[in-house]
Amino acid sequence: MHNTHKYAKALFNTANKANKISETKKEFQLIANLYKKNSAFRLLFITKKIDSNQKIEIINKVLNMLNPLTLEFLKIIINNNQSNELLKVIKKFDYLSESHLGVNKVDIITATKLSEQALHDLSQTISGILNNSPLINNITDPDIIGGMKLRVGNNIFDNSVNYQINQLKKTLHNM
Questions:
Q1: How far apart are alpha carbons 79 and 88 in whole angstroms?
Q2: What is the strand order of the sheet 105-110 is part of?
Q3: How many CA atoms lie less than 13 Å away from 138 in the CB half-sphere?
Q4: What value does the CA radius of gyration of the chain take, rounded to a whole number of Å?
Q5: Does the 2-100 domain belong in CATH 1.10.520.20?
Q6: In whole angstroms, what is the distance from residue 161 CA to residue 145 CA?
Q7: Are 13 and 52 in contact (CB under 8 A)?
Q8: Cβ-contact 152, 109 below 8 angstroms
Q9: How many whole angstroms separate alpha carbon 11 and alpha carbon 8?
Q10: Which residues, in sequence order, are CB contacts of 171 under 8 Å at separation 6+?
């Protein structure tokens, strides 16, 4: 865990100095997707049968379109035998970069999928409240019956019908 933070922080600081936070973030999201969805790519990182130099050579050939910062970081991860921590480093880097860029992730949880217009309107309202444009994720959960829940960071604002019913139950039970 501690190494994960060190690597992510070093990557973030280097990307920040090079003014390439957004570019690096996008490239590492691509790498994370490849790692999760392509077993051959994942195996390249975690296998002990291929030595570090061969892994780096393969990465340089396959991912030659990436910026040198990204390739150098992958080389460091491989050389220091931290490949199994790659996704954790990427997740921590994402958190650091989003905090720096002022991006707020907002989960809107509703019983049914919202229309594009409704999502746009909510995004505009939330943007005014947060003073920046949020990254909206609409999640459907039929258990909330109606209304919506908003999750902004660690804060949850629950205005669902299910929550209101539970509050009414508690009130009636305490009478």
A1: 17
A2: 135-140, 105-110, 147-152, 155-160
A3: 13
A4: 21
A5: yes
A6: 6
A7: no
A8: no
A9: 5
A10: none
